[in-house]
Amino acid sequence: MASKREMYICSLPPVAKQHAAEYLHENEEKRDSDICHILDWLQGQSHLHARRDPVNVVRFLRGCKFDLEKTKRKLSNYYELRAHCPEWFSQRDPCLPEIQELLQLGVFLPLRRRDSHGRLVVLIRAAVHDPKKHRQSDVFKVGKMTLELALEDDETVSVFGVAAVFDLSGVTLGHAMQLPPHVVKKAVHAWQNCYPVRTKSLDFVNAPPHVNIVLNIFRRFMTEKLRQRVHVHGCSLASLHTVVEPELLPREYGGTDGTLQDLIDYWQHHVTEKREWFLQDERYKATS
């Protein structure tokens, strides 16, 4: 059985390999046996209809610093989340009008270049949608779809993690009302306990003075480590540029890497062209 399994082929550049070894406890000599251990365990979890390709398994191992028991818990959490939250993980056809609208708005935009720490920087435009028209669950869905595609595109994201920048321009009471505590709790649970990528920072820009009222709800469900990674920059782009280099950002954020519309067009096209991948991926989830 083991001989028929697909072998893992590492695509990491040398600097990422070194980082994975130093900070994630990735041992190249032991990695294949760790992959086999997780695949053997999955074989016995009949309720988890999980992806079995080695790249995906390694992604979860790295997200748990190669702690096998933590990896099992995170895999269980992830596939159970996919089963228990159909509002995020079903009807993921990118051609659906409600998804195309949010892609056109650019609610979730990974930047095209990595920061000086190797991290994927994601621009989350949290208030660009109309709360009277767009469901928050669809906003989360588009964000998760885009993140999952970014993880598929670049293996280094599983090594260096993600830096999230939340733009709160135009935030209203209507947006806040889309995020009652039970929704916030579920969203934080997904970041912390389910997805196989580490959130290295959460930076909030164009934040109104009362932003901490909403942020405190998020903080309530965060671990102390994640709470320490939350930073509010008000409306200061200069402050944002201390954590995200301007050469990575679009012009609208004081950067030099093209325009916001360039970034929106790229991700709308990329997500849409991967329609078949999303439709196939939808079947992976826990079963009763």
UniProtKB/TrEMBL annotation:
Gene3D superfamilies: Alpha-tocopherol transfer, CRAL-TRIO lipid binding domain, N-terminal domain of phosphatidylinositol transfer protein sec14p
Limits of the CRAL-TRIO domain: 96-261
Pfam families: CRAL_TRIO (PF00650)
A single GO molecular function term of this UniProt record: phosphatidylinositol bisphosphate binding
Any single Gene Ontology cellular-component annotation: membrane
Record's protein name: Alpha-tocopherol transfer protein
Organism for this UniProt entry: Zootermopsis nevadensis
